[in-house]
Structures are given as C-alpha cells and as structure tokens.
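Here is one chain, start to finish.
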Amino acid sequence: MNYLNLSTQMMGEDIAARADSIEVGIWVRLTLYSIDQENGGVIAGCRQWRELEWIKVCRVTAAEVSISSGLWSWQGDDLHLWNYPTDKQALVRQRRESGKRGGSARTEAKKEAAKINGAKSDGPKPNPSKTQAKDEDYLGEPKHNPSTTQAQTQRKQKEKQNGNGNEKDKYSLSYQSAIADERERDWEKVWSAFPKRVDEKKARAVYLESDVSPQRLIDSLADWSQTDEWTRDNGRWIPLPTKWLERGGWNEQPTQITRKEKEPVRCTL
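Its structure:
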C-alpha cells in the first residue's frame, strides 16, 4: 500500500491521548513501514534486529521501541502495532486481485472478438510488399516496420527500468551517506566523554565501523568514569579509547562505583 488513512478521532482515543509526542512519532514510523510491507501491523522477529537495522528500516532506534507503550506491544520477538488499518489493507488487496481478474477477462474477450472478425472478412488478403510499395510512391517514405517499433518500445521499457534501478541505488547510497554523516557528527560528543583522550584517529575509525549507538557509549563511559579502577592513581588504569572500543567495553558492567550516592552526569545527544 502507498497510502495511510487515519481517522482524526483515532488520535483522540485514550491510548493515543496518554502517549507523548515522541511515542506518537515512533508509532507513525513503525506504521508507515508496516503499511509498505503489508504485514498486518506485526513486525515479525524484529527483536533480534541490530541498532543499525532499526535505523535503516524504520528510522527509529532499538532503545526507542524497547520502552513500554500503549501504541505498540511485544509478543515474543514480534512487535504488534496499535490500531493498524487491517481493513484498509484487506480492501487494497481485494481491489488488486479484482483488477488482475478483470484485465485477464478483457484480454480473452479481445481474442474472441478478433477471431470472429477474422472469420467474417472476405476477399484476398493484401500483399504487404505491394501495399508498402504504393505507400512509398505516395508518401515518399516507407511506413514504420511493426517489428522495429516493437523493438524500440521494448528497449525504452528496459531503459526506463534500468533508470528506476539507478534511482533506487542512488537513494540507497544517499541514505547510507546520511547515516555515516550523522555518526561523524556524534563522534565529537562521544570523544569528549572519554576521560583519557589518546590517539583519536584510531579510536574514531573503530567507532565508525561499529553499530553501537553514541548514547550508549556516552552512558557507559559516564559509569566507568566513576569506578575505582578508573579513578585511582590519577587514572593510570584507564584503558586507551581504541582498546576499550575494540573489546566492546560498553558491554561490560562496572564492578565498583566510588561515589554511589552521586548519579553519573550523562551527555544527551
């Protein structure tokens, strides 16, 4: 389906009214993706998706959809959307199938009519070569060869298809470039969260090759920066940023916080 038909009254229902604007935006993006896929409002197996896949496919992050909301719910690894227009999806599919059957019926009717008209025609059939010769004498140029016209039409259709494919490739490359640019911009905030900033070039290369979200790195660094391991001996035991990123340090749980009563200061992207 290429359209979304939402009732204005729907957004006034209790579930939608209790949701904040961020939840509504996430729900809209998930619904748009589901309408494009015609999946009935169920995104199957998406709990196993990686962060970058969420961003590319639905334009949301895994953290955003992991929160509980009345606009969507998890059943196992499947994400179920609230108020998905299943009736509209069924209607579109029904019309699509009817159109296919109608087109097939019209084609058969045309073939039958051609047979009847051919049987009623009297007299000898014209000689194509003589007819073409007369046309050349009268018009000064030969008529179009049907086979040539057909070949030109097929070539144009193929060129059009190739053109569409190139546009899709261009769009895909453009979107991937936008994702890369966004990670480049987020790197400055991630780098400023490291307590020991050494060899930024190597650390940045490792970061760009990973798919971990910048916010997760910043939160993890805020926790680690308060541990006994990173604060004692003037930070002597703080690992280099490149080493920490290569081993996936954000997946490790800090063992001891030096000041438990103080919440870590986090930078929000």
